[in-house]
Amino acid sequence: MANHGTIIRVSKISKSFGRERDAQIQVLKDIDLQVETGEFVSILGPTGCGKTTLLRILSGLESPDSGTIDIDSRADGSPSTVGFLFQQHALFPWMTVEKNILFGLHAAGYGKADARQRCSECLHLVGLPDCAHTYPYEISGGMQRRAALARTIAPRPDVILMDEPFSALDIATARLLYDEILDMRRRERITGIFVTHNIEEAVFLASRVIVMASSPGRFVADAPIDLPHPRDRLSEPFIGKMLQVRNYFEKGNL
């Protein structure tokens, strides 16, 4: 894993889309971000503010027009690895859940025996030990999301990026997955960045909530969530943090 301290440094990232300069739309403007090893940061913003574009830039799927991104190496000098949990689960439908997870492990260089052991660990971690030999279409949407999470964390990435991973789920299923994410954080010690437009979700899961505004996408607030786990959604401290973040959100998006 990466060293303790700052693992991600982003400086003055900007991004526009459009073929002609006069018709370009600026999606991101002067984004600065530092993330410490082990932090779980939520980027909260309205639809269309550039949250997904920022994640794609951090993962290397998109290039910024300007600015720099630096992700620290591991303690042994090897590059840190980044996992991406897409908004759509993107499981291969022709593979079983187990083979979906093994595919990523083999691509990461795991041998057969180690890959199978790690696959089993991750299936237990996300509560799917009995679903190894099922196909994605044979399980529910919530279970598919768990399987996708297992596939993402299986190669032990140093950083995991999550693009609104719970947006298509009902509240009860989403809350079950919140608990899985928190348990994963405790066991795997992963640094995470996830984007959402759900204020309660951000405050419940994150150690920091960064609020974005749109047109162009930019950061307008950075709120530490210094509440112990497990967090009680009905407690005064939790509700107070939600109101604080909502105030930042509403002021930034007037």
**Separation of termini?**
41 Å
Mean pLDDT: 90
Oligomer: single chain
What is the molecular shape? globular
Helix and strand run:
EEEHEEHHHEHEHEEH
Sequence of strands across the biggest β-sheet: 5-6-7-3-8-9
Helix content: 25-40%
Please count the beta strands (DSSP E, at least 2 residues each): 9
Structural class: alpha/beta
Separate helix tally = 7
Q: Compute the CA-based radius of gyration.
A: 18 Å
| Unreliable parts | none
State the major sheet. Answer: 6 strands, mixed
Strand content: 15-25%
Structure commentary:
It is built from seven helices and nine strands. With about 250 residues, it is of the alpha/beta class. It has a six-stranded mixed β-sheet, with helices on both faces. The chain has a three-stranded antiparallel β-sheet with strand order 2-1-4, covered by helices on one side. Strand 1 and strand 2 form a beta hairpin. Helix 2 packs parallel to helix 4. It is globular. The chain starts with 5 loop residues before the first strand and ends with a helix. The mean pLDDT is about 90.
Summarize, please:
With 254 residues, the chain is of the alpha/beta class. It contains seven helices and nine strands.
List the helices and strands and how they pair.
Layout: E1 6-17, E2 25-36, E3 40-44, H1 51-59, E4 66-71, E5 82-85, H2 97-107, H3 112-125, H4 141-153, E6 159-163, H5 171-188, E7 191-196, H6 199-205, E8 208-213, E9 218-224, H7 236-252
Parallel strand pairs: 3-7, 3-8, 5-6, 6-7
Antiparallel strand pairs: 1-2, 1-4, 8-9
Helix pairs in contact: 2-3, 2-4, 3-4, 6-7
